[in-house]
Amino acid sequence: MSTLEIRDLHVTVETENGTKEILRGVDLTVKSGETHAIMGPNGSGKSTLAYSIAGHPKYTITAGTVTLDGEDVLAMSVDERARAGLFLAMQYPVEVPGVTVSNFLRTAKTAVEGEAPKLRTWVKDVKEAMGNLRMDPAFAERNVNEGFSGGEKKRHEILQMELLKPKIAVLDETDSGLDVDALRIVSEGVNRAKDNTDVGVLLITHYTRILRYIKPDFVHVFVEGRVVEEGGSELADRLEAEGYDRFLAANA
Ligand code: ADP
Ligand code: MG
Ligand code: MG
ABC transporter domain: from which residue to which, for each copy (predicted)? Predict the structure, then answer.
């Protein structure tokens, strides 16, 4: 049983016009087996939240805490965060020139586990996970993110999550750029990870459509850098019908 706890998180970035506060007191708790959806309009700070949990150097934490099972995540290096059991799939994954998917996955697994996985079971696990995500075996020999389509990037993200078996996964806009078939396959992957490993999921999304495939236990409406309303999955249905206008007006 694991718990990611975010308390009164304030985050700034440096812009051309000076320091800008993006996160303005975020409170959130995600436990093993739970799925939380963070939903909000563009520019509300959702990706900033993901990057801040990931330890991206561009984002400065000015107040608040992030802990995983009581350990101070903000004091950890990016590698240490992964080893502690955090998985952070980014909205704009970077290219890793000259590194194949296969090598990348094995290196990541070794980093997270502290030792290299046994080759025979590892090869079998990768094959099975790729099959589940309907990925061509040749994909394993491509360079990471080089010329990947939107759908391939997302599948690669979920492939990593399935193989690394994190305690808590933060998925940012996992649905963007996916057609309906790819969306279903990727969602099945998330649901499989939930069933098999009891991972806690923080699913960040602008749109409600992925929530037809991945049922959230909790929905948090995110506006202007903070959570302004919380509820169950029925809140996502309301957002689908009404949009974010009501919350924007209430927050103005
Ligand atoms: P969302 O993911 O909800 O669309 P973001 O977290 O990407 O929102 O952005 C929130 C706000 O912070 C936006 O106004 C964006 O322009 C600004 N912002 C985010 N990251 C940076 C950055 N690195 N430099 C300057 N501004 C940024
Ligand atoms: Mg505050
Ligand atoms: Mg974003």
Answer: 4-249
DSSP class per residue in 52-121 = HHHT-TT-EEEEEEEEETTEEGGGS-HHHHHHHTEEEE-SSPPPEEEEEHHHHHHHHHHHHHSSPPPHHH
ipTM for the predicted complex:
0.94
E strands along the chain, which residues? Answer: 3-15, 18-31, 35-39, 60-68, 71-72, 86-89, 96-100, 143-144, 168-172, 200-205, 218-223, 226-231
Q: Residue 95 is part of a domain; what is its CATH number? A: 3.40.50.300
Q: What is the pLDDT of residue 98?
A: 85
If you compute the radius of gyration of the chain from its CA atoms, what whole number of angstroms results?
18
Residue nearest to ligand 1 atom 14, measured at CA: 43
- The neighbourhood of ligand 3, an ion, using CB within 5 A, equals 46-47
**Number of domains forming the structure of the chain:** 1
Averaged in consecutive runs of 10 residues, what is the pLDDT profile of the chain (252 residues)? 97 96 98 96 95 93 98 94 88 72 92 92 95 94 89 90 94 82 89 93 90 94 96 93 84 58
Best residue among 11, 13, 251 to mutate for probing ligand 1, ranked by most atoms within 8 Å of CB: 13
What is the residue range of 82's domain?
Answer: 3-251
For the CA of 64, the nearest ligand:
2
CA of 223 relative to ligand 2 center, distance in Å: 14
